[in-house]
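Input structure tokens:
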């Protein structure tokens, strides 16, 4: 067993940490207030090679391993969850689908601009009537004169309406099979006729990330925009979500670490009854518990990524990591506010934003309840769904 990061992994982590501390964290509160997606930061991350970390080298990326990618998302999450999820969805989920299942043409067309930070992309699975029960999706695509014609809608799609959105991978029903085997994924370019992007959601957190409902009305895209094999779309999406869960776990670890850093600073500085509050056991032990929970979540996250890198099964481990880390992030953010007292309840300190940003980590890319189902099934149980 080896707990040491490689020199390359440390190098990437340090690069992202420095950039995140100097260039991402300072404006995070203001961007959150104005719901502003920082495209300039995405571009700079592209120039630094960060957006290309998981993208194959032949398509402009670094082709790095899953542990390195987890480190990147952790460091971004420590500074700004909205930036972290934006990059995670574009370079991880959406580009990951293209890298894994795309044709040579699709890979050549879509991956280099994402690696360069010049394009964002979305992953469209959730619908107004189906989230956890993804197999119940109803968006339909039929072939007509060499094109797919798509009708339906999607909800909560991250990165779908930015000025640099290139495409959304859309899961559609393409077969007679009403179940999982009737689903395929299609790459829908942002300018496809019949594709429209709804108003942005007003969200509790992740406020400077881009999330929209999408509608497809006779939306036409060329037949060769099918991604991978027809009828395998749901399996593709579920596999991508295993990777996404490692990313959300890493984001959770980073967010929680940011809360702990801020809380330790505050506890050493703030005095009550004549001494720093960190010298009271109630506060010191709270901080110790926060650290222990974060370390456990971090190890689970790195291990899930490490299993992926070794080509071993990691579905259950990714679910365990995401469950533990996201619930830790919510707990740690709540306790961080407690440590900050009344000031923690204001936007003067970053912990209030972290508290709002943390909640969705227990919802997106598999709710805590669904992750418990995945884990229970691995124990040989058949909980009622
Ligand atoms: C900010 C944000 C960004 C998102 N980005 C994307 C994106 O880019 N792409 C995308 O496709 N989706 C995205 N989502 C959607 C997200 O993945 C879904 O919200 C999530 O999967 C849950 O689906 P739902 O909202 O339909 O809830 P539901 O599935 O309706 O669940 C409601 C509640 O019931 C529980 N529940 C459901 N079924 C069971 C069961 N069998 N047993 C026990 N409990 C159950 C759930 O755990 C939850 O607590 C995003 C969501 C948000 C909020």
């Amino acid at each position: 067993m080896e707990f040491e990061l490689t020199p390359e992994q440390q190098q990437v982590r340090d690069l992202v940490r420095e950039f995140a501390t100097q260039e991402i964290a300072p404006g995070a509160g203001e961007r959150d207030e104005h719901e502003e997606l920082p495209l300039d930061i995405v571009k700079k991350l592209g120039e630094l090679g960060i957006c290309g970390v998981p993208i194959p080298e032949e398509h402009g990326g670094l082709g790095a391993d899953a542990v390195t990618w987890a480190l990147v998302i952790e460091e971004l999450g420590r500074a700004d969850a909205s930036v972290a999820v934006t990059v995670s969805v574009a370079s991880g989920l959406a580009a990951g689908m293209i890298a894994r299942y795309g044709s040579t043409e699709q890979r050549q067309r879509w991956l280099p601009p994402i690696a360069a930070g010049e394009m964002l992309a979305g992953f469209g699975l959730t619908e107004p009537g189906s989230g956890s029960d993804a197999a119940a999706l109803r968006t339909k695509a039929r072939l007509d004169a060499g094109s797919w014609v798509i009708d339906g809608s999607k909800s909560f799609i991250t990165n779908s309406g930015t000025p640099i959105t290139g495409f959304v991978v859309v899961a559609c029903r393409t077969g007679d099979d009403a179940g999982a085997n009737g689903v395929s994924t299609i790459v829908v370019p942002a300018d496809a006729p019949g594709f429209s992007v709804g108003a942005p959601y007003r969200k509790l957190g992740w406020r400077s990330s881009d999330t929209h409902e999408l509608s497809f009305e006779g939306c036409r895209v060329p037949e060769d925009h099918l991604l991978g094999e027809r009828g395998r779309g749901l399996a593709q999406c579920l596999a991508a979500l295993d990777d996404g869960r490692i990313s959300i776990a890493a984001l959770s670890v980073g967010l929680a670490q940011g809360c702990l850093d801020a809380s330790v600073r505050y506890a050493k500085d703030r005095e009550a009854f004549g001494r720093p509050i960190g010298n009271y056991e109630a506060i010191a032990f709270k901080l110790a518990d926060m650290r222990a929970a974060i370390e456990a979540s971090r190890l689970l996250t790195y291990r899930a990524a490490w299993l992926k890198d070794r080509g071993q099964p990691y579905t259950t481990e990714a679910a365990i990591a995401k469950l533990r880390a996201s619930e830790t992030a919510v707990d740690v953010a709540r306790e961080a506010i407690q440590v900050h007292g009344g000031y923690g309840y204001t936007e003067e300190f970053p912990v209030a934003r972290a508290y709002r940003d943390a909640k969705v980590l227990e919802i997106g890319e598999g709710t805590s309840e669904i992750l418990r189902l995945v884990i229970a099934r691995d124990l040989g149980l058949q909980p009622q769904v």
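The first helix runs from residue 7 to 24. Residues 89, 122-126, 131-132, 156-158, 203, 206, 211, 360, 363-365, 367, 369-370, 385 surround flavin-adenine dinucleotide (CB under 6 Å).
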